[in-house]
Amino acid sequence: MQYLICLLLGYILGSIPTAYLFLKITRGIDITKSGSGNVGALNSLETSNSKIIGLIVLLIDFLKGFIVVLLITNIYPNVFIYPAIGLCAAVLAHNFNPWLKFKGGRGLATAAGGCSLIFPFLLVAWCVLWVFLYLYKKNIIIANFFATVLSIFLVISISDIAIKYSTPNAENNIMMIGFTILLLFLILTKHINAFITEIKSINLNVREKKDAE
Question: How far apart, in whole angstroms, are the C-alpha atoms of residue 154 and residue 165?
Answer without folding.
Answer: 14
